[in-house]
Write a structure and sequence with these properties.
Blueprint (H helix, E strand, L loop, with lengths): L6 H14 L5 H13 L3 H13 L1 H9 L1 H6 L11 E5 L4 E6 L8 H4 L4 H4 L1 H9 L1 H7 L9 E6 L5 E5 L11 H5 L4 H5 L7
Parallel strand pairs: 1-4, 2-3
The chain binds fe (iii) ion.
Length: 192
């Protein structure tokens, strides 16, 4: 079903109503949007991943208590109150979805991409993950198991991708530059 009114118009109408009734402060809302547009994005998550690749003790802390380990970078708050980090291996690939709505670790990855909120991704990621990944350009071998993590109102998942081969000479910040949002949702791998 297509929306009779474009979503941007509906959002604007809703915002206007909320402002008129004094329920939101437009300045506060603008500041929040600006922050997510310019300061908070996938680079935060990428720094976490690169640290885990280069520091085995950090990797252990990250996998045992994701929330505390990302807070070491100062990443706290909105939508990452409870972070669980799931590591990819040669034989196991993790994929994150929110089947109910669009729960997403904002403070680590920024705002979710539109495909993540799309009803078809949300429905099919669980039932046909291999097909969905292939359509998104990630062909996994048949012997690689796919584990799908359905976000809930409580938990936000972050995929820890595999460090690509041939990157031993790279520094932590050079590694961070390779890590993409899609790899941390689990719909792509990291390429050197
Ligand atoms: Fe959700």
């Amino acid at each position: 079903m297509t929306d009779p009114v474009p979503i941007a118009l509906r959002a604007e109408a809703l915002e206007q109503l909320l402002v008129e009734r004094g329920l939101v402060d437009p300045a506060a809302m603008d500041a929040l949007i600006r922050e997510y547009e310019t300061e908070i994005g996938p680079l935060n998550g990428a720094r976490v991943v690169a640290r885990a690749w280069t520091d085995p003790a950090y990797r252990r802390r990250l996998l045992s208590d994701g929330t505390a380990a990302v807070a070491e970078f100062g990443f706290t708050g909105l939508q990452i109150e409870h972070v669980v980090v799931v590591p990819n291996t040669e034989k196991l690939h993790n994929l994150v979805v929110c089947t109910l709505c669009s729960c997403y670790p904002w403070a680590l990855l920024g705002l979710p991409p539109s495909w993540y909120k799309d009803p078809s991704y949300r429905a099919r990621a669980v039932k046909q993950p291999r097909a969905v990944l292939a359509e998104m350009g990630l062909q996994l071998a048949d012997d690689v198991e796919i584990q799908v993590w359905d976000s809930s109102s409580e938990v936000r998942y972050l995929v820890l991708p595999e460090r690509p081969a041939g990157t031993a000479h790279l520094s932590e910040s050079e590694l961070a530059a390779l890590v993409t949002r899609d790899a941390m949702v689990g719909v792509a791998k990291v390429h050197p």
